[in-house]
Amino acid sequence: MTELLKVVGLTREYPGVRANDDVSFSIGTGEVHALLGENGAGKSTLVKMIYGLEKPDAGFMKLRGGSYTPANPQAARAAGVAMVFQHFSLFEALNVAENVALGMENPPKMRELAASIRQVSENYGLPLDPDRIVGDLSAGERQRVEIIRCLLQDPKLLIMDEPTSVLTPQEVEILFKTLRKLQSEGTSILYISHKLEEIRALCDEATILRLGKVVGECDPKTTTARDMAEMMVGQTLHVPSRESSEAGEMLLEVKDLDFAPANPFGTRLKNVSLKLRAGEILGIGGVAGNGQDELLSVLSGEARTDKGAITFDGQDVSALGPNARRRIGLLTAPEERLGHAAAPNMSLTENAALTATIRKKLSKNNFLNWKKTESFAREVIKAFDVRTPGPASAARSLSGGNLQKFVIGREVLQDPKVFVVNQPTWGVDASAAADIRQALLDLAAGGAGVIVISQDLDELMEISDHFAALNEGTLTAPRKAKGLTVDEIGLMMGGAHDLEAAQ
Amino acid sequence: MDFGGINPVILLASLMVASTPILLAALGEMVTEKSGVLNLGVEGMMITGAVCGFIAAVETGSPTLGFVAAAIGGMALSMLFGLLTQVFLTTQVPAGLALTLMGTGLASLLGQNYVGIKPPSLPDLHVPLLQDIPFIGPVVFQHDAVVYLSLFAVVAVWAFLKYTRAGLVLRAVGENHAAAHALGYKVKLVRFAAIGFGGAMAGLGGAYISLVRVPQWTDGITAGIGWIALAIVVFASWRAGRVLIGAYLFGGITVLQLNLQAAGAKVPVELLSMSPFLATIVVLVVISARRHGGTNAPAMLGRIFHTS
Prior knowledge:
Chain A is an alpha/beta fold.
């Protein structure tokens, strides 16, 4: 195998952190190379340098033997390096063809471009209509837009940043087929992920990063997932455990709920019913954008619903707002940490006051007791091992994982009867994620009901008693999580979104 | 052909004259907003354009040079806004308001010695043959060059945004600046250009008021037209064609109610003065409510872009 890209001694420093420290590795032609590491290990910085978005402070790169110093993404694309972003770099109000054109140097006329989009997308088993508005597409289809945009430029190296985090198992399989086809045509792929089983299935080589440094290389086909995970984390992993408990009394019941969101790009909830008993964890899976946010908002009380749709502890709560629901013990934690679960510029103490005032009795005659609030914030920080200088720090100054631990801890320590959480471990590193899962398990063991909405199926299988899936605003009937197969889960999630026909 | 003392030919012809300043300013602001920047300083840029155009036209004797100076004046003021919002990353709403306050004051200062002077007039371009069509000729084809320029600008802006690559990039920047940056487009440069275009168009609109519509210099000559232009952009859902409808509707009813006042209609003057605003809002709301879902606003409108 000849060498395509060689990275030697790349170093990049930001104020206060060395994001990449003397990183070296190489990718052969037609090789699928995995880049592994926890959040903050420096994967993103590294690929940004390869894609020309950042310049290295030291070190150099070679592409096909020649020196490679891309000044900007255009230069990288011209050299044959293309990238599919983790957070889609798409424009929702524009159509597919316009989105593709924006990622090309010299796009052909719109009509020709539309024709070649159709052709290439069908060649690779990723059908796509060039005239559709991207805002109306599912996450899987949006990713196809990104991939097609790259493929039209005939790349030599394709960088994929966490491509499967938003896909159903079937969609993942189709993506892998496409990637293997590309590989057989001689395209190299740099594949970034922390899903170890996927990397074992797909990649030929793996480079593992921790705290900006290369800590190891391995052949993922022969290394176990556990070994790779421990190389990533640098310590032995703690696996969450639970005592299985008997399901108790009925706590929360949703009956035939219909709900149309105010946001035009939102998903309408159709005929959603669910039951939650004390001590039970209900896991709700599904691809993002199938009604997760809407379900959380009707359970939290941000959005009101028809009378009788939601019963909590024998009481109709459909007309109650978030604070009234908190008062009786129905607590929630939304997906978006900054701006929804926490106010970015306010201190942790102030953020603690925002949801905990009622249950923790932090105010008297409508005046806040700051001392009491601060000690509650300290309690959360201590109990959930939140790494921060103190409760006076602004929420935005915390890393994603630490802030997530804080917002989950803030609700858990209020002793909820029912706790609903959306994406509890999204973007959180492996050890923090294990802590959060353990906290949810402990909460259920203590007799609370927990609903976990997540796109991470491994997580749901690990902690839930029952599993249900959201698909275009409808919720499947919950099934016992134990013993469910990947195929069954995939079918519950609505299969591959009309993809099967294309195979 | 008079109805209660109102001649429809003169009425319609003056409708086009009254609407042109609003149309120019609104088109410019629409392009600025399409790039994701909310510039509330339209009124300030218009009045600066009005005074710059007036001074240049009086001093040189050439209305054409007046309009050029107006565009430059409006653009210069908008660059100040660009500097504040794109380089120093100030919030756009107060920066725009400050621009209006500053522009109004600056215009007063510059125009002090020009009160009561008559500017050179802009010749009408009578389109050969077409101007002889009965009724339509005098209404549509006997205007000055700026009226035709403004109509041409509607088509040009529409085609630019819909068909050209630069227009696509501009829309992309307004839709998702982080993604545009990740693809390697220069977000700040695009926004500077859009802000500058908005300023130049507002300046032209202002000069049309001081050189053609009124034509003389008094303090506060734009009288809130810049705010109307801003509102029209929103109610027109950021579409060039609807901006044209909105501007002509507003201009038309303004002219009509003035004529009604002059003709001594038995309706309270206050109601008549209110009518252009009411009618414009009602019609544009009805138009945009018909289309299902979404306001079509650029997603990044008013948001600050940090490179990180």
